[in-house]
Amino acid sequence: MPRLEAVHNLTTANHGMHDPKLTPHGENQCLELQSKFPYHDSIELLVCSPLQRTIQTTLLAFDPEISRGVQCVALPEIQETSDLPCDTGSNIQILKEKFKNKPLDLSLLPEDWNNNKGKWAPEQEAIERRCRDARQWLRARNEKAIVVVTHGGLLHYLTEDWAGSEQFQGAHESDCIGTGWENTEFRSYRFVAEDDDSASIEEMTESKQRRGNEDKPLTKEEKMQLRETATKKWEAQGYEKTSKPERRDLALLMSLDHSAKGG
Questions:
Q1: Which residues, at least 6 apart from 217, have a Cβ–Cβ distance to it below 8 Å?
Q2: What would the pLDDT profile of 129-144 be if each residue is shown by its tens digit?
Q3: 22: which DSSP letter?
């Protein structure tokens, strides 16, 4: 699922704010999500992007899980996809201080996780590779029901599903990055196989039914066309950069289910 409303969502002028927090409305959205989310009792692990707004979303919306001792882990691979100040995370020591009394595991964050370089660059190939790494990490976990809280644009890379990526633009194309994910929306996924290198996932039938999307699945070619259209638009808006050739060697809400394929 994507995080909820933060200060930088109010106006593009706020995109210059570094790692903004949720707005009061965003905090209220967290409580709304908490009340409508039907799977609190089954969740075994919480995973979030290390940006402040996604950490806040996780801690507020999934307080029932935290209250019963479910671990909350910040995973740097699922951070935002651009190097705008609003999409750049805080240094580890700052996060430790701001969330020092919260049950948040920051141990997976390297010192350079927020430098927007190398593995963390806002470039398509780098984003795809860290999303693959994230899926592999999730698949390797022992927990069977995992909540992942991240960002709308990143979720298209993480799920490899580009349907709806043109949605939720502002009055002008430059006003807002498009994403097929609404605030407070959650979808359920399962791994396609236990041994493929990409650790691909697919949306579960009940999840599609819940959001009223029972369209015929897109072909691989149609998915690639949507991906190309979306990433070109995001690049034109300055949210992403074209991958550099010399770096080709770089290596939901979503509830993930490790059970067998089907249904």
A1: none
A2: 999 999 999 999 999 9
A3: B
In the beta sheet, which residues pair with residue 105? 73
Q: How many CA atoms lie within 13 A of 63 on its CB side?
A: 10
pLDDT band at residue 12 using 50, 70 and 90 as cut-offs: low
DSSP 105-130: B-TT--TTTTS-SGGG-SBHHHHHHH
Q: What does the alpha-carbon distance between residue 133 and residue 34 come to, in Å, rounded to a whole number? A: 28
Answer whether residue 247 shows pLDDT above 50: no
- How far apart CA 120 and CA 244 sit, in angstroms, is 13
Please give the Cα distance from 137 to 229 (Å, whole number). 29
* Crossing angle (nearest 10°) for helices 152-159 and 220-236: 150
Tens of pLDDT, residue by residue over 87-112, are 999 999 999 999 999 999 999 999 99
Bridge partners for 191 per DSSP: 201
- Residue with tokens 């705008």, as numbered in its chain: 84
Cβ of 210: how many Cβ atoms within 10 Å?
14
